[in-house]
Amino acid sequence: GVFRESDVTHAASRTGNATALVFSRTELFDRPIPLSEARTFYSPFKTSGYLQSTRLVDEHVFVELCRRGLQ
User: Fold this and answer.
1) What is the pTM of this model?
2) Cα–Cα distance measured from residue 32 to residue 68, given in angstroms and rounded to the nearest whole number
3) Residue 69 CA: distances (Å) to CA of 5, 11, 15, 20, 63
């Protein structure tokens, strides 16, 4: 999504610093992957409640997520 300046100001640290992530060349999956399904092939998802995150995953997990999402 896109943040308004007031959103960033509210989320900034006490010193006024904020972190931003820029995404490019993203692709929507044809089929959403339920967290329960992701937990069957990537064990760290078993302890975290979120699939959408900035978590580093290895190449094999990335390929599996794409394979399932683009079916």
Assistant:
1) 0.60
2) 9
3) 33, 32, 40, 26, 10
